[in-house]
Amino acid sequence: MFDILHRVGIKAPLADVHAALTQVDRLAGWWTTDTTGEGQAGGALAFKFGERGFIDVKVLADQPDRILWEVTDGPPEWIGSRIVWAPNVSGDWTVVMFSHTGWREPVEFMHDCSTKWALFLMSLKSLLETGKGQPWPDEISIGDWD
Amino acid sequence: MFDILHRVGIKAPLADVHAALTQVDRLAGWWTTDTTGEGQAGGALAFKFGERGFIDVKVLADQPDRILWEVTDGPPEWIGSRIVWAPNVSGDWTVVMFSHTGWREPVEFMHDCSTKWALFLMSLKSLLETGKGQPWPDEISIGDWD
Question: Which of A8, A43, A67, B29 would you call most buried, defined as having the most Cβ atoms within 10 angstroms of its Cβ?
């Protein structure tokens, strides 16, 4: 199995980071504007990206220090994979350790998703620090696949 | 072993991408302004980031479709790891497949480097598409460790 790993430091309280990872209106501010569902444990979230596709997850945990999603539908490579958010406080910062685990092969699409996750984490950081993220459909382009 | 993987599409000719990965004055335009050495196979490159540290690599390959560096000195976690650039042409684009392979453990610093690599790849893309990258010391901050 292969994992995408990232780390970002956000100058915002843990509670705000937690809200941005568990509340639909806040998720819509940094990943995709077309976000629906329930972000609490036991709920399900649907992230749509127009004609580019969609990602459905079930929420397995929503603790302050660990938010866990399992992908139930979307790109074949994503189905069954897990997305783990581990925020922790470090002085004035909330540090988010991120992993998208359980890729079966390190395919080209995994490389692409790794880079895109970094940019969406920067969008999350921007939302919390400036009030404005860059969710789909206005996210930063990383190349020919966007 | 654990790998950092990324993919970026750059609207520039392969030769320009190759130059940006093998010529000191071009490397200085997207990673760190303090770059010295020789980027051809058999050469060595020194990347300095002021008080933050440095990275020394030897260049094992400099082909158009595969540029390979081995890290000879720098952060302990980096020593012995390999950085592989695999550019390939796709229509008007040069797609760069990137990997930083041979991490012994998926430590927090690896998470941090994964996110930073994505931003430096965006800096490379920006240099080639707009003429201006964002190398150290003016690179995009990803948090408390910058």
Answer: A8
